[in-house]
Amino acid sequence: MSRKMLFVFNPLSGRAQIRTKLMDILDIFTKAGYQIEVYVTQRAMDAKRIVEERGAEMDLIVGSGGDGTLNEVVSGVMGFSEKPCIGYIPAGTTNDFAASHKIPRNMLRAAERIVMGTACPVDVGSFDERYFVYVAAFGAFTDVPYKTSHELKAVLGHPAYILEAAKGLGAIKAHHVIMETETERYEGDVLVGMVSNANQIAGFKGLNGKNVRLDDGAFEILLVENPQNIFQIPEVVTNLLQNGHKSKLVRHFTASHVKFQFEEPVEWVLDGEFGGKRTEVSIDNLCRAVQVMKMTHSLPKKS
Ligand SMILES: Nc1ncnc2c1ncn2[C@@H]1O[C@H](COP(=O)(O)OP(=O)(O)OP(=O)(O)O)[C@@H](O)[C@H]1O
């Protein structure tokens, strides 16, 4: 009997390249013996809804789009007691999740790896009643991915983020934060905070350490403290972009559970999408909560 697949994709993600790849992707899945049900998302939260409605019957759920679409697919399966495996074909602008998990950006190669791959456990973050697959963040520039228009991303790709970030330069402000993990307490004024399970965030590799384990039940937490004067800014930037260079203003923690408190509601971003405003939030690492299809051995290069 053929296996059932739900294939959900965002037609607008990134540069909308799915339009020229769709036939070949479906061909790869069909040849691998899948009976495919296809859904084209029409708006935000559509991917999560369709996964909740149809996912329980499936052997495999494949999502294609940016990190926001993957977030919805994963959020959709979290309610199932027996979760189907997930496959992911990156089609967004930065594709941080794919980079962290070594999923190829080439859509056809990613599709081949789904059908030939092995189900590998991956941690998921719970953020109150929501979920994230690689990062929950607040503060300066973290809103850039969802504030940048699809039209600009389609034309410029990643540089569209830099243009959007430049618009926000004048509005940077620090938040007074109390953070508690299972072992540590921190209080201070913070420009940017990131709770992540990733090797790449917003296109930057190694922000939260090198070779981060993605199935160990632990988050890497980064807090950038408010510089006392403008002369400290280059030091902070060097620390963030060059792994290994140390700055007292960049603090790193590791934890499975973390709670944040702020003096006023602060906007959070989950996997590049708006995550709501919170004065308090509780974040937990759900160790190995989902299985994602990945290649555990290398494929021969095609001529
Ligand atoms: N047909 C659609 N029209 C408008 N928005 C959509 C549509 N389908 C999905 N969405 C929403 O668009 C948002 C962003 O999608 P996604 O992350 O897949 O792509 P992207 O923004 O191009 O990628 P990236 O985050 O890498 O820039 C998600 O919240 C998703 O739910």
UniProtKB/TrEMBL annotation:
GO terms for molecular function: ATP binding; ATP-dependent diacylglycerol kinase activity; metal ion binding. InterPro entries: ATP-NAD_kinase_N (IPR017438), Diacylglycerol/lipid_kinase (IPR005218), Diacylglycerol_kinase_cat_dom (IPR001206), Lipid_Phosphate_FormReg (IPR050187), NAD/diacylglycerol_kinase_sf (IPR016064). Its cofactor is Mg(2+). GO terms for biological process: phospholipid biosynthetic process. Pfam families: DAGK_cat (PF00781). It comes from the Bacteria. Keywords: Kinase, Lipid biosynthesis, Lipid metabolism, Magnesium, Metal-binding, Phospholipid biosynthesis, Phospholipid metabolism, Transferase. Residues 1-131 form the DAGKc domain. The keyword Kinase applies. Gene3D superfamilies: 2.60.200.40, Probable inorganic polyphosphate/atp-NAD kinase, domain 1 (3.40.50.10330). One of its GO terms (cellular component) is plasma membrane. Belongs to the diacylglycerol/lipid kinase family. This is YegS/Rv2252/BmrU family lipid kinase.
